[in-house]
Amino acid sequence: MKVYKKIYFVVSLIMIAQMLSLNVYAYIDVSATTYIIQIVAGVVVAVGAVAGVVISKIKKKAKEKFNIDLEKKETEEDIVVYDENSSSDTDE
What residue ranges do the domains of the chain occupy? Predict the structure, then answer.
């Protein structure tokens, strides 16, 4: 029985909302659209910059806490391959 009351409540809210709605005729100008696009792009760039700064600070703190050297590059010793056919001891 409670399910029917919930459905009745939701349906009646939707019907009241439809009865109280007004018709609005609006026009969005092209120049306003470009401003909106610029605002969205600016927000995206700002969020990206803040995220980059936060990530770099987190990396720095992790490096200090765990004694990790992120800039250290490991180098391997030169690898020397000896081939049996290329020995310089034999004269042909």
Answer: 2-69
The candidate with the shortest Cα–Cα distance to 4, out of 12, 18, 17, is: 12
Distance (Å, rounded) from C-alpha 3 to C-alpha 21?
Answer: 27
Print pLDDT tens along the chain (92 aa).
688 899 999 999 999 998 888 887 888 788 888 999 999 999 999 999 999 999 999 988 988 888 877 566 667 777 777 777 765 555 54
Distance CA(1)–CA(18), nearest Å, equals 26
Q: Whole-prediction pTM value?
A: 0.45
Q: Count of alpha carbons within 13 Å of 81, Cβ hemisphere only?
A: 3
Contact between 59 and 70 (Cβ < 8 Å)? yes
Q: What is the C-alpha to C-alpha distance for residues 55 and 44, in angstroms, rounded to an integer?
A: 16
